[in-house]
Amino acid sequence: MAVGGPELGTVVGIDLGTSNSRAGVYKNGTVVIMKNDHGNRMTPSWVAFTDTERLIGEDAQNQASSNPERTIFNVKRLIGRRFNDPEVQREIKFLPYKVVNKDEKPYIQVQVRNKTKVFSPEKISAMILRKMKETAEAYLGKEITHAVVTVPAFFNDAQRQATKEAGTIAGLNVVRIVNEPSAAAIAYAVKTDQDRSIMVNDIGGGTFLVSILSSNNGVFEVKGTIGEWKDFDHRMLEYFIKLIKRKYNKDISKHDNVLVKLRTECDRARRALSTQKQVPVKIESLLDNILFLDTTPLSLGYEARVGVIEKLILRNTPIPTRTSIFVTTHKDNQTAVSIKVYAGERILAKDCLQVGRFNVFGIAHAPRKVPKIEVIIEVDAKGILHVKAEDNATSKFQTQWITNDKERLGMDDVQRMLKEAEEFAEADARVSERLEAVEELHVSLDERRSKITGKLADEIGSYFAKKTGSTLEEGLQWLSDTRNMEKDDFDAKLKRFEAVWNDFSFQLDSGWPLSPRRQLESIAHSIRRSMAGKIMDEIPSHYKVKMEKTLKKSLQWLEDNPNADKDDILKKLQQVRAVWHRIKLAVIDMAEEHREQQDEL
Which ranges does the record mark as transmembrane (predicted)? Predict the structure, then answer.
């Protein structure tokens, strides 16, 4: 900081820092650090853009947490460097604003009045230098055009030239670039006339350098400088990010507005350490109003069938999240249902953890499967599970959520369950196939049973309808007693019941009762449909040929005998049924024999 000769006029000294900048002048035999318009001798090296204006210094820093993408700082780490410089790439990871590659150099990209603009680090630095120029002019009461600007001792020629260019853009003639340790030594030495050696420790936001200088009759010589680009602010930032994550289980590394607040306090603490041995870092409401996108550690589901889990919220789903299902009653006039909620990755309930049970009471009397109750399952931002229900019909019921507090999952339990799910993946896949076969058989039998009960059964009133119903009931009972059989067993049983049902399905679809002539025609149509369908794919071709000849012969007889007697038609009908029945039994026996051979292998 000095006053120039008559040819230069007043020359101000500007400390263009990574975090903060200052402007000083040598006046009346002493050095004065000039105050800015906020009354501070130190101005944050920050620039911000809003929808209406550009802010520099304290004004930019104070709004940073609400406008992080358009608040620029730490450009000193970018100035004079190439975009692919490792230091630049490392710095970008910590910056909330966007840095882009332009002509192999780092440029800052921001939105200004709804337009995308890019600024070079020199341009942003020029804005800060102009602020320092205006501060000096306000204090001195005259225009300033010359300045001495400090840079780190390790700055290379490109960085020094870029700093000088920034001064030119700011309207300053940079008459000298001075190393920061030298500037500090000069500021100290001007207070004494004694010749001496001086050690300068330069701890800035982005530097840690030690320099040895000697003064002799006002001449300063740098004996040596040692140190490197030590990012103190970054180190402090990384330390507190890890501390917060360990202590509060919150990761703030992706929240730019929070990082800006923390970075500002780290900078203030570092500067305070120049005069204090210990400085606390206090930030009020740092974690307030932050949505931390945690995820569910395990899948959540409910017991959709006895012992079987249906997943509703998959593992690693970001929270908060919610989903819903519709449940119903399984018995006529059922007034309550119970839903068991589980956490885990396995198929069966016994291999997962029951986290709670949700009971619904006061359901209005109705036939089974008529009530539709929407159950909403929600995991809030704190990871807490909430369950509620809504009845689309009445909404007049009571609910009860019972939490399983005895078995809380820790991270060790989660890891154990995930490992088990991986180990038993193949076994669970086989279980899943078997359960799908069970469900297919159950649905098939249940739907067909519903068709031959109630009013329709009274209208049919036939022996064959009763026999079909009895066969279906037998199948449902078998299904209830044999849940541990393999998938092939259920598939074989399904085919047997489908064969029985096909003899009856056409009558149900066409209405009942039918005349003997119409019955014969319907049976012929039903058999042909069965032979063309997937259920009877295994019918050998010679059986199909035999059945088709029988059908053609019977239908031709009907056509040739329009006045045939009822009993004669019923005899033809019984003949067709008998042939069809023998073919089905033969096919079923062949399928079972084949399966037994496979089992033996």
Answer: none
